[in-house]
Structure formats: C-alpha cells, structure tokens
Design brief:
Elements: H1 3-27, H2 30-37, H3 41-47, H4 51-74, H5 81-98, H6 102-112, H7 114-120, H8 131-141, H9 150-166, H10 168-175, H11 179-201
C-alpha cells in the first residue's frame, strides 16, 4: 500500500478509535469519523467496508494491545511474584493515564457480544496457564502466601488499578480535585497498590519469591 494511502488509513483508525472508545458502537457515526479524519464518506468506505468492519478492527487492536502486556508481564518465568505485581501495576497505571476510556470500551464489547468476543480472542483461554498462576499456587503449597484463590487476587489487582479510572468523573466531582492532582494520585498508587497487595498475600513476612 502506498505511503499516502497508509497514512489515510491510519488517520481514520486513529479518529475511529477515539470516537468508538468515547461513544461506543451505537453512539459513533461514520460521518463524524469521516469529518474529523478530514475525508468524505466515499473514501472512508473505500478503506473500510462498513462501520461494523471498522469497529471490529479497532476492537481487535485495542484488546490485543491491552492484554498482550498482561501476558508479557505475568508470564515471565524468571521474575518473582512481587516483581510481576509491581510491573503489572506500573505498566497499567501508565497505560490508563494515556487511555482512560479503554477499560469501559472493552467491558462494553464483552457485555454486548460476549460469545463472539470470546471466539475472536483465543488468548483468554491461556490466562489460567500463565506463569503467575502456577507461581502463586506453588507459594500457597509452600505456605508462603495466604491460601486464597488466585482469581480473587487477580480481581483485586485489576480492580485497584482500573476502578479509579472508570470512576474518575465521580471521584473528581466528589473530591473536587483537579486533573493534575488526580494524575498525581494515580502515580502514588504505583507504590501503594503493591504495598496493599503484599498485606493481602503475606501472613507475617514480606518474602518475595
């Protein structure tokens, strides 16, 4: 594909990603995407056959990019459990600071078409095989961490990171904090969340295996 055509396609995807993540599939209008991308509808249809085709491409790329980091961090065989947690927390807080709409976008995709979503993303079947889970279960057997289901721990880990971004409009309204202070709080959570999770995991020692 010539450079100019590639640039046009990437521009459409960049605009579509922003609008789809803000408004969802139903709320997004192809004419709005075309207008913001600086092209006409005919040219947009030349690159992408339909709004659904464009949405599915954006959804695929968003989910793959988002979860690829999960696998890279949580599946490293040569890092400790706490190193994985530290890496997960830092990476995702930075990612969500730049893309705060992504969690709700992914959740809306799953909610609206869960079965189809699962078919498209076979990676979800691999989550239980991550080194993180095996490492966690081994430490439970050794009596080094509390005997809780690793899914509970992963839900708490993800929730502590994702919830502040999903609920940020309410948090800012209730606390009356400006955007700059909210970002500072999120940076502070890079240290606080792993500390809270250590307290959840370890009985009397902070041993990092």
């Amino acid at each position: 594909m010539p450079d100019k055509e590639l640039q046009t396609e990437e521009k459409i995807k960049e605009v579509a990603r922003k609008i789809f993540q803000e408004k969802g599939f139903e709320g997004a209008k192809t004419r709005d995407i075309a207008k913001e991308a600086g092209i006409n509808l005919a040219l947009m249809n030349y690159y992408f056959r339909s709004k659904k085709a464009l949405f599915e491409m954006i959804m695929m790329e968003t989910v793959q990019d988002f979860f690829q980091m999960v696998f890279q961090i949580l599946n490293k065989p040569d890092t400790s459990l706490m190193d994985k947690i530290d890496g997960f927390v830092n990476t995702y807080i930075e990612t969500l600071k730049k893309n705060p709409e992504v969690p709700l976008f992914i959740l809306s995709c799953v909610k609206s078409n869960g079965a189809e979503f699962q078919k498209k993303f076979s990676m979800f079947h691999m989550i239980s095989e991550l080194h993180f889970f095996k490492q966690f279960q081994e430490l439970v057997k050794q009596g080094k961490v509390k005997n809780i289901h690793p899914a509970h721990f992963l839900m708490n880990l993800a929730g502590m990171i994702v919830f502040p971004f999903v609920a940020s409009p309410m948090i800012k309204l209730v606390t009356q904090i400006p955007e700059s202070e909210f970002d500072l709080l999120m940076d502070q959570r890079k240290k606080l969340v792993p500390m809270w999770l250590k307290d959840m995991l370890f009985e009397t020692t902070l041993e990092k295996n």
